[in-house]
Design a protein that fits this description.
alpha/beta; Rossmann fold; six-stranded mixed β-sheet; four-stranded antiparallel β-sheet; 8 helices; 24% strand; binds adenosine-5'-triphosphate; ABC_transporter-like_CS; ATP binding; transport
């Protein structure tokens, strides 16, 4: 293969869930997508279209029914075992008995990184997420936004080449959410990580992504891919005509018009 290396290759994937009563739920149908190294790709679509399912297949948390997924050229099982990616899902999932610093250092500890190097890395990440003064606090002493920042720092502790993020900012208020988006952009620039990002927010997808993948109602299929090539992803972009044009393009593809829309997709 020539050109940019591929972080994730999803090739003709179907997912059918078998329910306990013997029924079937066809969640994904013939989904193919390549995510390049360093690329930021968002998945957007109506509620129940299979965004989280696709993420879980990539993370090897569920088996696929047919097709193939590789992560950096490896099987999803091997990539999971090798911990080739960081995961940040909607619930921050911090360990309540560990301090902020100890939560961030957890993956490093599991992999036998020595205490001094762990501390250097957690110092760096605490500075990056602006929580230096909270290193010794525990999760229950933090706001929702702060917890999410810690979860993202933990996901990035080992400088993964790939981040899987499922609605990581869904529970945050609008101001915190925009702040977290800015931080994520900075973190990705620092590490060059590829990201697959699930969101219900069209502006969030457009602000963050190199490409927005639009999915159909169940069974989820990729119906459109919107490339976005902004000069810079900073506060000015949020007021830029090019940004509004991107939002309108995605909204039109999702809704078939600029007004209204399916359940589970937010225009804000
Ligand atoms: N373990 C399961 N067993 C049976 N059906 C399932 C299972 N997990 C998901 N589904 C079904 O698969 C479909 C896709 O679900 P999924 O959670 O991936 O959608 P989503 O696009 O992430 O939705 P939302 O935007 O509401 O979070 C839904 O119809 C859901 O009910």
């Amino acid at each position: 293969m020539t050109g940019t290396p591929v972080a994730v290759r999803i090739d003709g994937v179907d997912k059918v869930f078998r329910t306990r009563k013997g029924g079937e739920v066809h969640a994904l149908s013939d989904v193919s997508l390549d995510v390049a190294a360093g690329e930021f790709v968002s998945l957007i679509g109506p509620s129940g279209c299979g965004k989280s399912t696709l993420m879980r297949l990539v993370a090897d948390l569920d088996p696929l029914t047919s097709g193939e997924i590789t992560v950096f050229g490896k099987s999803v099982e091997q990539a999971r075992k090798d911990q080739d990616y960081g995961i940040a899902f909607q619930q921050a999932g911090l360990l309540p008995w560990r301090s902020v610093r100890a939560n961030i250092e957890l993956p490093l500890e599991i992999h036998g990184v020595d205490a001094r190097d762990r501390r250097d890395r957690s110092d760096e990440l605490l500075a990056l997420i602006g929580l230096e003064d909270f290193a010794d606090h525990h999760p229950d002493q933090l706001s929702g936004g702060m917890k999410q920042r810690v979860a993202i720092a933990r996901a990035m502790a080992e400088r993964p080449r790939l981040l899987l993020m499922d609605e990581p900012f869904g529970a945050l208020d609008e101001m915190t959410r925009e702040h977290m988006q800015n931080e994520l952009v900075a973190l990705c620039q620092e590490t060059g990580a590829a990201v697959i990002f699930v969101t219900h927010s069209i502006p969030e997808a457009v602000f963050l992504s190199d490409r927005v993948v639009v999915m159909s109602p169940r069974p989820g299929r990729i119906t459109d891919i919107v490339p976005l090539d902004f000069k810079a992803r900073d506060e000015d972009l949020r007021e830029d005509t090019a940004f509004y044009e991107g939002v309108t393009a995605v909204r039109t593809l999702l809704h078939g018009s600029e007004q209204g829309g399916p359940r589970g997709v937010e225009n804000r």
